[in-house]
Fold this sequence. Notes:
The chain is mostly beta strands and 153 residues long. Helices cover 10% and strands 48% of the residues. The protein starts with a helix and ends with a strand.
Amino acid sequence: xxxxxxxxxxxxxxxxxxxxxxxxxxxxxxxxxxxxxxxxxxxxxxxxxxxxxxxxxxxxxxxxxxxxxxxxxxxxxxxxxxxxxxxxxxxxxxxxxxxxxxxxxxxxxxxxxxxxxxxxxxxxxxxxxxxxxxxxxxxxxxxxxxxxxxxxx
Length: 153
């Protein structure tokens, strides 16, 4: 009779598990900011080659030898400021992005993701200045499909 109770308890436990107890690989993650590069003269999208892109706060290289028309970078979820150092042929410029984090609960297994709103104080600090200006194209980051900031160079 004891074995019957164990079977019944195990059966109830399995039946009571919800679908959200599993976090499917490839499900939503915290979104990254998408930064595009524009030719300052023509204002047309263009590719760029960078030696690397570093996160200033953690002093870690995020991308090494980057080449392309846009780059996706992670923002800090526990801060309202993220800084990146862009190295273009030994010319360093700092991009400071001020943002607000919006945490969204997905489910028990996946936990939370963070979306962001970019504040208009976002700025560049130039050492010698390969970056001419930045423009905030889309201030909300709820997916990575749209370009949020353009760097004009």
